Amino acid sequence: MLLEKKNILVTGAGCGIGYAIVEAAAREGATVVAHVGRSKNDRSNFDKFNNQQVQKIAGDLSSQQGTDKLWREALALHNRIDVLINNAGIYTASPIEPRAEWNAGWSENMAINLRAPADLCRHAILHFESTGEGIIINMCSRSSHRGDDADHLAYGAVKGGLLALTKGISRSFAQKGTLAYAIAPAWVRTEMAEAHIATVGEEAITADLPMREITPPSDIAETVVFLASGRARHANGCTIDITGADYVR
Questions:
Q1: Pick from 191, 192, 214: which is nearest to 202 by CA?
Q2: Has this prediction a pTM greater than 0.70?
Q3: DSSP SS3 for 84
Q4: Fewer Cβ close by (within 10 Å): the C or N end of the chain?
Q5: Dihedral pair phi/psi, residue 23, rounded to 5°
Q6: Whole-angstrom Cα distance, residue 140 to residue 160?
Q7: Quick one: which of 51, 52, 19, 16 has its CA closest to 35?
Q8: What angle do CA 222, 30, 161 make, to 5 degrees?
């Protein structure tokens, strides 16, 4: 088992990519702390897991107090965290007009998509210094590289910030045992994406995709498991694009 004896914290584990990561990590022997937030999509069933292997924690990542509380509670369960997976995220619009929606969009994207993972990264780095090693995996986006559309400028900007944060951590703390990786998906078949898929139609999306398929969450989860296993130490700092060749660099 790739993750046997590893304690893993996954944020945004209540649905989509996060839940797929929990499933894959548990299958590979990890002990998982699964964070669920305030999303209406957090309805996944954790009852199928052994309570000793997967433990669910609710938490609000919109404030520093919430992220601090989540880390304390997760750490208290096992006294050690080996891998932090910052998966939680939102796709809140920030249209140019009206100004109120612009401000709200920036505030929400900054809080959930950048400040929360940054705070958890800080906790993890300090913890890994005491344990001697650890891995951070940050869920970025294709938008981290190319930006996003006119109504989601804030989303693209903060995901770009998360990517830069990941690179900085990998360069700055590797000598103290912390490795950091970024994953940058494009279209993934998640609850968050389904609303848009239903609006425009799946054919309108897949017509522009080289593989003519929307990426399944399991593809992301399998990549996360491999990186979390520690079998690619010298890939430290890398970004893995999982876009079905929709965006290539």
A1: 214
A2: yes
A3: strand
A4: C
A5: -60, -50
A6: 8
A7: 19
A8: 55
- What does CATH list as the number for 7-242? 3.40.50.720
Q: Scanning the structure block, which residue is given the tokens 């998640």?
A: 190
Paired with 9 in beta bridges are: 33, 84
**What is the C-alpha to C-alpha distance for residues 146 and 152, in angstroms, rounded to an integer?**
12
Contact 87, 14 (CB under 8 A): no
For 70-99, the pLDDT digits (tens) are: 999 999 999 999 999 999 999 999 999 999
Whole-angstrom distance, CA of residue 172 vs CA of residue 184: 21
Q: Distance (Å, rounded) from C-alpha 53 to C-alpha 51? A: 5
Rounded distance, CA 84 to CA 124, Å? 7
Enter the tokens of residue 83: 């891998």
Phi, psi of 50, deg, nearest 5: -65, 130
